[in-house]
Amino acid sequence: MSNHPGIVVTGASGRMGQMLVKLITGSDRAKLVGCVERQGHPWIGRDVGTAMGGAEIGVLVTDDPLEAFVKAQAVVDFTAPAATVEFAALAAQARAVHVVGTTGLAAEHHRKLDLAAHHAVIIQAGNMSLGVNLLTRLTQKVAQALDADWDLEIVEAHHRMKVDAPSGTALMLGQAAASGRQVRLEDVRIAGRDGITGARAQGTIGFSSIRGGDIVGEHEVIFAADGERIVLRHVATDRQIFARGALRAALWGQGQKPGRYDMMDVLGL
Predict the structure, then answer these.
(1) Is 158 a catalytic residue?
(2) Active site residue 162
(3) Which value, to the nearest 10 degrees, does the dihedral of the CA atoms of residues 167, 170, 175, 176 take?
(4) Domain with 149 in it: what CATH number?
């Protein structure tokens, strides 16, 4: 076990954080060496196992991320954009692989990740699942094959507690479609239709978001032309797929050169 990479989980009390803790502690390829939470969180100083309602596992929750990161070979991060960019700088300082599953990242956040990636490996994706990344590649290929006479709409559905829209996965699919069409997503993106919008402009990529219940994640890419439609769809029923993908990314990142990577790199797509 001593040569297995040590992994830190940030946002350990969250839904994804707890799932990652369970996955890593049960893995025979990695070991959990740290858990991070925000200052003032009631889990600080407690064993993460007992904080989660189970047995002690010998890892205390800390609010000092650098102290945790220097003991690790990888950091897995599903938190919030502002926290993620701070973690990126600290993970780079510790030369730890930083796996980012955080959604809602804006251009300024990506610029800071780019700076950190000069010194460490950053693997960032809007979705960590194998199926979604295959869907992304298919979306790019279909968009490349079809001209702008085919209207393109991305529909996503998530649980009621999700705070950002469109989802990171939907935006990833939109980027793939725009790449296939050799356009910039920023120039053709349409979202939030309401009222008298007029006819759809040719070549636009539309986004629709649904929020409700405990939906894990559903994504459809619709190519619609006169008389026919092509629908590419992925349905996630268990969040374990994201945790498993993140762990796979953390392991893959060991020994890679500093830089920005995504799940396409991890999966060899």
Answers:
(1) yes
(2) yes
(3) 150
(4) 3.30.360.10
